[in-house]
Specification:
By secondary structure, the chain is mainly alpha-helical. It has one domain: Rhomboid-like fold. It has ten helices and three strands, in the order E-H-H-H-H-H-H-H-H-E-E-H-H. A three-stranded antiparallel beta sheet has the order 1-2-3.
Length: 221
Amino acid sequence: MIPLRDSIPSRRIPFITYCIIALNAAVFFIETSLNSSGALDAFIVHYGVVPVHFLDNPFLNWNSLVTSQFLHGGFAHILGNMWFLYIFGDNVEDILGHGQFLVFYILSGVAAALAQIYFNPSSQIPMIGASGAIAGVLGAYFIFHPHSRVMTLVPFGFYSRIIEIPAFFFLGFWFIMQTFSGTSALYVAKISGQDSGGVAWWAHAGGFAFGTFIAILMRFL
């Protein structure tokens, strides 16, 4: 399911959301400008989160929990992440305010990375991407605007349809799918004895859970 827009207009210009998108685009441009695959690999290993390396010396590698949030593995990766942030970030920034939203976004990414490290501590594959931080934004949106409507493109093979889906269903289903996929990946890794790499499902689930928790604290306490 691809979100196209939501039903809640922004009350003010979401400066931080736009700045985060611009910064991710700038870093991606740097990635694409590297002249060799070896240079790009070294760049990603240095600034991404490699769970086994992080656990060897967390105090030395803590900065990778932040820098990894601004790296992406390809055009589709960054486009998908930034689109979700564009759709849902403005409304969460409206509620939190610019400064608090920035802190919340970074902490969501940190929590997401730690969740992935917890479930895959021996992985030597660099973890990169803004999806964990954005998952935190989705979790907050889930609490702040559960009755919002999300205009969604739903593909059915060669046929697609645009329908309105309640935000609590769209985001709840998204979270369930991340958790299910993460559990499946753990099972496959246990059977095969190897880390399959690919999508950091537990970073998505962990970021969403963190965002939901913080939003509940702010809304009900």
